[in-house]
Every structure is written in structure tokens, then in C-alpha cells.
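ZP: hey, is the magnesium ion complex queued? I don't see it on the tracker
AM: it wasn't, my bad. submitting now with these inputs:
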Amino acid sequence: MTNEQMTSSETEPTDDQLAPTPGTDGLTDTADSGADTTTDRTLLEARNLDVYYGEEQALSDVDIEIPEKQVTAVIGPSGCGKSTFLRCINRMNDLVDSARVEGELRFDGKNVYDDDVDPVALRRKIGMVFQSPNPFPKSIRDNVAYGLKVQGKDDDVDTKVRTALERAALLEEVEDQLDSSGLDLSGGQQQRLCIARAIAPDPDVILMDEPASALDPVATSKIEDLIEDLAEEYTVIIVTHNMQQAARISDKTAVFLTGGELVEFDDTNKIFENPEHERVEDYITGKFG
Ligand SMILES: Nc1ncnc2c1ncn2[C@@H]1O[C@H](COP(=O)(O)OP(=O)(O)O)[C@@H](O)[C@H]1O
Ligand SMILES: [Mg+2]
């Protein structure tokens, strides 16, 4: 256990936080101080989290506490369960028939696997961006407005669309073409469009599964800059197979190794400069993976 994890018992959820809210989705609104300062408040917490696909175990007894408004990188060799872990957080694994989740995954103190949690509402608070940019075959405006319309938040859509595009560092490039197709953009722009689409409904968390691995170096560096900016307002969890990228942009790094085991989780500097586990050091230095 890291010092971080030991001291964070102060952030254990209170009974208040655990009690279901009167709302219909079973989720509390996360407290927002209004300030964009980095805190070490735990927003997401896994306890004894196991995931199976049929008989095969993909995650094994994962314990982790992910801080709010920081960038957490998830690294590890192919097949070690990185995507599975990400998909647990907003219950995307529900969509996989063979997937079975055991243990707890707490979002602001509330287990997202409780019966009263609505996974659709959860996914609005915990948005996701995938490896290949996947804009809808719609205008740029309609792509970004999509989540707002689904939620019935359709007052002042134009302002919200522009704000999301601006936060996604895309507005300047597309300002004059909001009605042209999202599919006409370059790959890097499409990925920023998908990020704008994910942030338009104002989520708390953005999950990104190798969001730059299909992009060229210039587009990748724009996404990396953007991710660091997003952490001023959102909690960002990014899966990457690019260790330099993890080292550059993240505050915390979680290292999963074969068998779906979370071997080490700590400040990114510590992981890359002086990891506790030899297996982590071997992985970081490229001895395997
Ligand atoms: N939909 C699925 N059905 C069955 N097995 C899966 C499915 N998705 C992933 N797996 C298995 O779970 C393990 C972890 O996969 P994944 O989370 O995709 O790893 P990573 O993202 O680290 O490459 C792998 O052994 C993979 O084959
Ligand atoms: Mg993956």
C-alpha cells in the first residue's frame, strides 16, 4: 500500500454519501467546490474487483483509489485487463454477455453495481472516448449536441456546443463549419470532436482507451496537451500502451500485469523513476511487454 492509499481513509464515504439520493438514477451529484484546484479526494475506488469473461478471469482482486481532477494513466502489456478495468467504471461491461463483475467499484462513495444505479445515467457522469475516433455521420454541431438532446438538456444548445468544442481545443478549427459532417475532419480533429461530445453533458470523469494510438505525432501531441487541460475540470483516466505518453501527461500511474493484477499504483514519477516491484521495473524498462 502506498502512503497515499493509507492516508486516504479520511476520504472514506460518509453514510450520507452512501445513501441513495431521492433522484431516480441512484447517483449523488459530486460535490463541486467551484475551484479548479487539484485535490487528493478519492473520486473512484475499486475494492476486491474481479472480472470474468465466462471462465476466464480478466481482473484479479483490484484495489485502487483514483483521485479527483487528476490524470491517472493505466499501463501494462496487451491483454492484462486495461480496457476491462476502464469498462467496469461506467458499466460498459454490462454490454458484454459473458462478463461478470464481483467486488465493488465506488464512484463518489456509491457502488456503481448497486441495484438502484441506472447505467445510462452513470455513463453521462462517466463519459468515454475510444481508440478509433467514432463520430456519428452527422454534422459537427449534432455530434456534440447528441448527449444534450438525449438528456433533454436542449436549452441553449449552441452555447453548450461551442463551449464543449472550445474545451476540446477544436472550436477555432471548425467554427465556420459546424454544419458540415464530423466525418470530413482529420483523424486528430475527429478524436477531439469525440472528446467534445463526451464533455458536452458535463460529466465528472472521462475515460479514454488509447485515444491517440491511431493518430500521427502532431495530432497525438494535441490530444496530450488537451488531456492535461481537461484534468483541471475532470477526472481523466487514460489507458495507453505508450509509456512515454503516460510519463508525460499523468499524475498517477496504475500498472497492470498479466493475469489482470494491479501490481503497482503510485505517483507517475515514482512509478517511472523508482518502482517498488521488480516486475514493474522490468516492464517499464522494456524487458517484456
Ligand atoms: N468481450 C470479451 N469476451 C471475452 N474475453 C474478453 C473480452 N474482452 C476482453 N477479453 C479478455 O480479457 C482479457 C483482458 O482483455 P482487455 O481488457 O481487452 O486487455 P487490454 O486492454 O489490457 O489489452 C484478455 O485475455 C482478453 O482476451
Ligand atoms: Mg485494451
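AM: back. The domain at 40-284 is CATH 3.40.50.300 (Rossmann fold).
ZP: great, adding it to the tracker
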